[in-house]
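User: My instructor asked us to take a sequence, write out its structure as tokens, and then describe one feature of it. I'm not sure where to start. Here is the sequence I was given:
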Amino acid sequence: MEERDYLARPENVAPIAGAAAALLSLQRAGFKLFVVTNQSGVGRGFFSLEDVRRVNERLAQLLAAEGVRLERFYVAPETPGQPSRGRKPLPQFLFDARDEFGLSLPACYVIGDKLSDLECGWNAGVKRSILVRTGYGRKLEEEHPASVAAAVVVDDLPAAAKWILSAT
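Assistant: Let's start with the prediction itself. The structure tokens for your sequence are:
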């Protein structure tokens, strides 16, 4: 989705151009698609878990209209300082997806625009963590190049899907 600080309203959900087609290409290649998201706005009292559910439902609807199936959303509502079972970079939600859906994490990929996304993948032992330059990704790459050195870095989600499909 396009970056919106503390997104709490479904009508503000805006998929990035080409995202649905990219996800559909991965799905057709046999990949299962999941969303793992930190939502500290809940822990900060900016919005509720119900607001998050409605936003996620809207995203799922928009993608489903293009043929994309998101298997599950994993949501960590805690703030960075609060104890959490699954807040990225903790890999617990990836372990949950592995157990619930029979995934082999060494054959999986994590795509994201924050260091916590990449670290979550690395901590879970996925095949590769991929940084997209959309959202916060470009700034992360520019300001902390050593932190992302082990990641694949691409411009956007369509480029990430293309990279994955060429690597498999």
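For the description part of your assignment, you could build on this observation: Residues 132 and 156 are 5 Å apart (CA to CA). Try explaining in your own words what that tells you about the chain.
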